[in-house]
Amino acid sequence: MNDLQTVMDLFETTREDYLAEARLAAESLANERGVITVNDVREVCPPPANIDPRVMGAIFMSKSWQKVGYMSSSRAHMRPIAMFRRAHE
């Protein structure tokens, strides 16, 4: 198992309450806007201070989401971040 997967698995088990809340926020935002980013979720559902921001992508790690592109982040020195929409089921 790679290091990123190990961190994501740990995040799933230690922050399950936050992830559940953030995933609900993501679904609501996607229903309103169609395409969203982790920054959109962060605005309405800020993570606890002790969460490493690099693992925020765990919010979208399910078959319910489809990555549709990238955009420059307004938070991370204009680095590209993924854009997601709800996957068609």
Topology:
Blueprint: H1 3-14, H2 16-33, H3 38-44, E1 65-72, E2 80-86
Antiparallel strand pairs: 1-2
Mind explaining what this structure looks like?
- The chain is α+β, with helices and mostly antiparallel strands and 89 residues long.
- The chain has one domain: Arc Repressor Mutant, subunit A (Orthogonal Bundle).
- The chain is built from 3 helices and 2 strands; from the N terminus they run αααββ.
- A two-stranded antiparallel sheet has the order 1-2.
- It is globular.
- The termini are far apart.
- 13% of the residues are buried.
Helix content: 40-55%
Radius of gyration: 13 Å
The number of helices is 3
Low-confidence stretches: none
Tell me the series of helices and strands, N- to C-terminal.
Answer: HHHEE
Question: What's the number of domains?
Answer: 1
Outline: globular
Task: Provide mean pLDDT, rounded.
Answer: 83
Number of strands: 2
CATH topology: Arc Repressor Mutant, subunit A
Biggest sheet, spatial arrangement of strands: 1-2
Q: Supply the helix-strand structural class.
A: alpha+beta
Amino- and carboxy-terminal Cα gap: 29 Å
Q: In percent terms, what proportion of residues is strand?
A: 15-25%
The second-level CATH architecture is Orthogonal Bundle
Report the biggest beta sheet as strand number plus sense, adding barrel if it closes.
Answer: 2 strands, antiparallel
**Overall CATH class:** Mainly Alpha
Features:
globular; two-stranded antiparallel ribbon; Arc Repressor Mutant, subunit A; 89 residues; 3 helices
